[in-house]
Request: fold
Amino acid sequence: MIYEAPPPDAPVRQGDIFHDVPKPSFSMEQISILTEDNQAEATTWEELRGTRQPVTAIVGIVAVTAIVITQDCDTIRAPEISLCEIKPFLDVVRVTSPKTDRKWTELLRTHAIQNLKWFYLPPDPRLGFSDRMAVDFQSVLRIPRTELERARHLRIGRLNSVGDEHFRERLAEFFRRYPYNEWYPFTKAEFEAYRSDHPQETTIIQPYDYQK
Reply:
């Protein structure tokens, strides 16, 4: 497929896929910290944020599969490397699973144009991808570079040259996308038609002065 297996000692680069990397999870409103006598104490970030000394906290950690998004020029020197989590495709895109290959190709083609929040990864048993997967650009984690280099045994593959080039552009498109209200150039009549077609978003879709 679109993957290749780098040599075990190959440097970490953009497009490398790792499994079982740690993703921390915690709440700013419910934090457990360790006191000086190693006792757990419940608090909030609002109470802690003025503290100038390091605080030891108890946080949840889950093992995830992730792909390196840091550019190659930074993976050799940056203190930390950023990765995006890889999840089952249907969990990221949240659509009904197509029943035929033709419908799958149509869904993948159209959603790749309409939605910039993910990058498609086809199934490949060699990587443990038994089903279609997707890179979730909205789920980012960071790992110290030297530690990820020592954990290269967790690298299960990397994108080939075609996939890597597309991934780089897709990633750039997501982070440089310009947010705007797509109804801003509509006439008053066009705006009313647009709003009527989106009844679930009436609190968000509001007219500009020239559309009232």
